[in-house]
Amino acid sequence: MKYFDAHAHYLDRKFNRDRHELMLDMHKNGVEYIINSTNSKDLERGLQLAKRYDFVYLSILDDGYYKENADIDKEEARIDELLEKSVARFKKLCAQNKKIVAMGEFGMDFRRTRPTPEEVRKQSFWFKKDLEASRQLGLPVVIHSGDACNYVFNLLQEADMPDYGHGKGMIHCYLGSPEMAMDYIKMGYIISVTGLVTHRSPRGKNLVEVVKRVPLESMVIETDCPYLTPVPFRDKRNDSGLLRLTVEEIAKLKKTSAKEVARITTANAKALFRII
Ligand SMILES: [Zn+2]
After folding, report:
1. Separation between Cα atoms, residue 199 and residue 132, nearest integer Å
2. What's the rounded Cα separation, in Å, for the pair 105 and 141?
3. What is the residue-averaged pLDDT of the chain?
4. How far is the CA of 74 from the centre of ligand 1 (A)?
5. Ligand 1 center to residue 70 CA distance, Å?
6. 70, pLDDT greater than 90
7. Ligand 1 centre and the CA of 146: distance in Å?
8. Rounded distance between C-alpha atoms, residue 103 and residue 60, angstroms
């Protein structure tokens, strides 16, 4: 069995104790590829991680220009200048480092703030800037949506991002409706399924139906570890070795073998992130 973990956070301090030991065990657990999500703060550590382990790839995000109190009306010129510099720096970095394969995660999140018109406007502004940066870098996107399904969908529909041959990007930890998932696929996105599919919780209430409806050819799988641990380890720390539980659940729902789910989702992720 060969698994591709399309989204993980191995720089989280929950892994400080035994990161290396875990990595050494990955192949034994059938994990062949991992995309580690990094932001500006841990970019250097991310690059080190990808250098040390040949199966670790990176999605990057420059959130350094996110100034809490940046005035998006009065300071757009300055923000664009910073964005331009950031893109130039990342372009260089990507040219030197073939393991940077995506940009993200970014998007919109209304789990902690209410979607007031002002908040929606602010988050849309930054979302568009990140999409613009990805477009200029030529990287597929890793889209985050926290209780923001409709906002994110509408904005992506408008943005009309480039397709890199096997998709525009992945909708990370997809929790929307089955209908919306199918619309995303039509738009050129891949649906990413997490361990939440094993939970049968209110948060993942759509997932069973989504997995049944979405063809395996349009699906990737991820842990989002250390979060979203699949049942029966729900209260423990997650890692890519537990991806098999998500795969087994998807196989049951799709009435196929776990091997087939692993094979197709691995091929999809490799194609999307252009890993040869
Ligand atoms: Zn994540």
Report:
1. 35
2. 7
3. 95
4. 31
5. 25
6. no
7. 11
8. 5
The sign of the torsion formed by the CA atoms of 153, 156, 160, 161 equals negative
Does residue 68 register a pLDDT over 70? Answer: no
Give the Å distance between the CA of 241 and the centre of ligand 1: 17
List, in order, residues 6 or more apart from 183 with CB less than 8 Å away: 153
- Pick the more confident residue, 205 or 52: 52
| 159 pLDDT above the threshold of 90 | yes
What residue ranges do the domains of the chain occupy?
A: 3-272
Which residue, 137, 98, 105, 149, is CA-closest to 8? 105
Q: Is 3-272 a CATH 3.40.50.700 domain?
A: no
* Interval between CA 170 and ligand 1 midpoint (Å): 12
CA of 38 to the centre of ligand 1 (A): 9
Q: How far is the CA of 31 from the centre of ligand 1 (A)?
A: 18
Is the separation of the CB atoms in 47 and 266 below 8 Å? Answer: no
* d(CA 9, ligand 1 centre) in Å: 6
pTM greater than the 0.85 cutoff: yes
Separation CA 11–CA 130 (nearest Å)? 22
State the distance from the centre of ligand 1 to the C-alpha of 164, rounded, in angstroms.
22
